[in-house]
Design goal:
This protein has 119 residues and is mainly alpha-helical. The protein has 4 helices and no strands. The longest helix has 34 residues. This is Fiber protein Fb15.
Length: 119
């Protein structure tokens, strides 16, 4: 919605008038007032209505943030694995026999016998 309003504002302007129209939007006072308006709108929409959505926002935001923080390290790890694979470099602890299987048995108390195996 905000992008549509912004587009409608600049649609009727000539190209040489766009910088003069955008310059006041990048002042500190304008940015502060825009953030304040956004927070007031968020408070009115979610906080005052006793909605559970802010909890979801925090949970999903934290999950996305932790993913983005871990992403560079994971990419380096995957690049290193790819490089090692291309050059035939393997560590002795990375060698797994062809016929190796992983088995796991879990038993929950109170729920009767329950077995889970991974092959």
């Amino acid at each position: 919605m905000a992008m549509r309003n912004f587009y409608n504002e600049i649609r009727g302007l000539k190209v040489k008038d766009v910088p003069a129209h955008l310059k006041p939007m990048f002042t500190m006072n304008y940015v502060k007032s825009a953030i304040k308006r956004g927070l007031d709108n968020y408070h009115a929409k979610y906080i005052q209505t006793s909605s559970i959505d802010p909890l979801y926002h925090v949970c999903f935001g934290g999950m996305i943030f932790s993913y983005l923080v871990a992403l560079p390290e994971e990419r380096r790890h995957l690049e290193h694995q790819q490089h090692a694979k291309e050059h035939g470099e393997t560590k002795p602890d990375m060698i797994v026999p062809q016929n190796a299987t992983l088995a796991c048995s879990i038993q929950f108390q109170g729920f009767g016998p329950f077995a889970l195996s991974f092959l």
